[in-house]
UniProtKB/TrEMBL annotation:
InterPro entries: WH-like_DNA-bd_sf, WH_DNA-bd_sf
Pfam family, one: Rep3_C
Originating species: Magnetospirillum sulfuroxidans
Name used for this protein in its record: RepB family plasmid replication initiator protein
Length: 222
């Protein structure tokens, strides 16, 4: 009757009806079953253990190994789901490997209440700490890179402002002469494709390569 008992637990826990049954025997042999079906009085009452699919599945896994439903609900309510998951999975592996466990429900209860999960060794703890140290170092490196990039943006903005303030403050004739001299300087120091980007005005400071060259050139001539 194990299959019927499992179905009864599932239906009684998750539907709006309940059922029970009794065996009708002929001698020592079960000849039939008489079912009694009724409305489930708990159907309209909120139940976190029933309404959460993960917790409901854990209760089912416990009762499937012979644990009473009330005991299974108490176990799931009192312990972290990861521990219950580990215990039921471990028991399933042991049973599949034909390991003799006379009382699976009792084994589950002790395994969960005493937390039989393997404790990490000193070596595994050191490995975990080393991985965490690496992650922390990576987070600090990324944070440094972000701050450095932000610093470079601030420096670039200051350079642009200083260059354009100097250029715009020159008389037109001096500015044109300065631009001609800078074009010759660029032609001698950078590839032609980059030198062509300079056309006067704001191009003194927009392109980072030209901006760097303009700072050097202005320091030479001023």
């Amino acid at each position: 009757m194990r299959v019927v008992d499992m179905a009864r637990r599932e239906i009684n826990a998750k539907t709006d009806i309940t059922f029970d049954y009794e065996e009708i025997k002929e001698g020592r042999k079960v000849a039939a079953l008489r079912f009694r079906i009724a409305k489930n009085p708990r159907a309209g009452i909120p139940d976190p253990l029933r309404d959460d699919p993960h917790l409901a599945r854990l209760i089912t896994r416990l009762t499937a190994h012979g644990m009473a439903e009330d005991a299974a609900r108490a176990i799931v309510q009192a312990h972290e789901p990861e521990l219950v998951e580990w215990a039921t999975s471990t028991l399933a592996h042991k049973l599949k490997a034909k390991e003799k466990i006379e009382n699976p429900a009792g084994w589950l209860r002790k395994a969960i209440e005493e937390d039989w999960r393997p404790q990490p060794t000193l070596f595994s703890q050191e490995q975990a700490q080393a991985r965490e140290n690496e992650r922390q170092a990576e987070r600090e490196r990324l944070d440094h890179d972000v701050k450095t990039a932000e610093g470079r943006k601030v420096d670039a903005a200051r350079e642009k402002a200083a260059i354009m303030e100097f250029i715009d403050g020159l008389p037109e004739g001096e500015r044109e002469a300065l631009e001609q001299g800078f074009r010759k300087y660029l032609a001698e120091t950078v590839p032609a494709i980059i030198a062509k980007r300079f056309t006067g005005g704001k191009t003194w400071s927009v392109d980072p390569v030209i901006r760097a060259k303009s700072i050097i050139y202005l320091q030479i001539i001023v």
